[in-house]
Write a structure and sequence with these properties.
Blueprint: E1 2-8, E2 17-20, E3 33-36, E4 39-42, E5 44-49, H1 55-71, E6 98-106, E7 109-117, E8 122-131, E9 139-144, E10 150-152, H2 173-179, H3 183-193, E11 195-199, H4 206-213, H5 219-228, E12 235-243, E13 254-257, E14 262-274, E15 280-287, H6 288-291, H7 294-312, E16 315-319, H8 327-338, E17 348-352, E18 369-374, E19 380-384, E20 389-390, E21 393-394, H9 401-406, H10 418-426
Parallel strand pairs: 5-17, 5-18, 11-16, 16-17
Antiparallel strand pairs: 1-2, 1-6, 3-4, 6-7, 7-8, 8-9, 9-10, 12-14, 13-14, 14-15, 18-19, 20-21
């Protein structure tokens, strides 16, 4: 499970910002907390903030870290630049390194892993471990600097000297060790593998389709949930069609590319057709990509990841969960992760939204609600509702969170004024 994530000098984050899934001592919604190995970890978190405040950049930062961990030892070549994006709104960010750090809970151990890098090389990398037993001390498994000076604990057997000759300047040691099937490194890489980051503003049904094709998500379950979502769909079918090079430009989704052929993904939905007496007597087939609503396409695209995450106990990040989806449908998706009976594996959902209808005490604990706000130097700052202090003290659990947020009590709002928008039109 994800315990904590920190980022520094990446896109809109200049100063170090930390997001935590650790449950506080408040008593609200106990079912939203998974208790594992003596640790109390939240299963959902939501981010609010103005446009361009940095909410999406938090997800992009985690996506960058995931890509480095999974691919730096196999996709990069010696001398190839690291595709890092430092903070560019001051005179220092472009020349300073980017830092990422994550804490995962795996079995009975808390792993703290991170790295610092520039576009040229990995400058620092570290991995610490601590047992969840009371009074346990954190153990440094390995530490690395820019000169490849390694400090490795004697218990960390998988980091052998013979492997270090394969380590490039732009490669993470953790990624390399996992390639050699190191037990601990493979566990941490598995945490990243079980993390999906979804931008709901883009229609991408390949995720759900590939999960079905590989037997990881039952097609009957997806059909059933589409029916329950009241989308007018009774079932669907997925077919593959070989595509010629002449029609490649007009083909939206390629499932795979072989040496000799290209395969396109076709998804058809089935709707009921009624006669003049309102009797159903046959089905009408729609093309999902061209004939269904945007909300239907988005929900289909997301449905497979929802099942996969809940079934395996991973992490699902969703950017702008409300995009084209009704608030009631969004609420149901969120509750699936908060309900211990539907979320038996400790799966986690982290999402961004502007929909204040979701922001209420019946839906979230105060430590599940986070805000992203630019400070005076245009760097993104993160803070939770449970730690935010008002003039009258902390936010109360009987407050109207949504209304108070719009009134400006918690910050993280755009500084906009109607008259500023209206004046140019009046002067036309």
């Amino acid at each position: 499970m994800l315990v904590e994530f920190s980022v520094q000098n990446y896109r809109s984050f200049y100063e170090r910002a930390t997001f935590s899934m650790v449950a506080s001592s408040i008593k609200e919604h106990p079912t939203h907390v998974a208790e594992l190995s003596g640790q109390r970890i939240l299963t959902t978190s939501v981010f609010y903030g103005a446009n361009a405040s940095g909410k999406s950049n938090l997800l992009k930062a985690f996506a960058f870290m995931k890509d480095m961990v999974l691919n730096s030892s196999k996709d990069t070549q010696a001398g190839e630049e690291i595709k890092v994006e430092p903070f560019l709104l001051n005179s220092r960010g472009a020349d300073e390194p980017t830092q990422m750090e994550v804490v995962f809970l795996t079995d009975d151990t808390l792993y703290r892993y991170g790295f610092t890098c520039s576009s040229k090389q990995v400058l620092k990398e570290w991995l610490f471990a601590r047992s969840t037993k009371p009074k346990s001390r954190e153990l440094r498994l390995f530490e690395r600097d820019a000169e490849k000076d390694f400090k490795v604990h004697s218990r960390f057997k998988e980091a052998k000297d013979s492997m270090l000759e394969f380590l490039r300047d732009n490669t993470l040691l953790l990624s390399l060790l996992a390639q050699f099937n190191g037990r601990v490194s493979t566990q941490i890489v598995h945490c990243f593998t079980n993390t999906n980051i979804w931008n709901i503003s883009s229609y991408m049904p390949v995720h759900t389709s590939v999960l079905i094709k590989n037997g990881l998500v039952p097609q009957d379950w997806i059909s059933d949930i589409l029916v329950k979502a009241d989308l007018g769909i009774k079932k669907f079918q997925i077919t593959e069609r070989e595509v010629s090079s002449a029609t490649l430009k007009n083909t939206p989704f390629l499932l795979r590319q072989d040496v000799n052929k290209l395969v396109s993904l076709i998804i058809n939905t089935h709707h009921e057709y009624y006669d003049a007496e309102a009797n159903e007597f046959r089905a009408v087939i729609f093309d999902l990509a061209t004939q269904e609503s945007e909300g239907t396409k988005q929900f289909f695209s997301m449905a497979g990841l929802i099942y996969y995450t809940l079934n395996r106990g991973g992490i699902l990040f969703i950017d702008e969960i409300e995009n084209s989806l009704h608030p009631l449908l969004c609420s149901i998706i969120i509750r699936l992760f908060q309900d211990a009976e539907t979320n038996t594996k400790g799966a986690q959902l982290v999402f961004t939204t502007h929909n204040t209808l979701l922001l209420n005490k019946g839906s979230f604990r105060r430590d599940e609600v986070w805000f992203a706000e630019k400070d005076s130097s245009c760097s993104t700052d993160l803070y939770s509702l449970v730690e935010y202090k008002l003039d009258t003290g902390k936010a109360r659990n009987d407050s109207s969170y949504g209304k108070d947020y719009i009134r400006g009590k918690y910050g993280a709002l755009p500084f906009v004024n109607y008259e500023d928008f209206a004046r140019p039109f009046r002067n036309i």
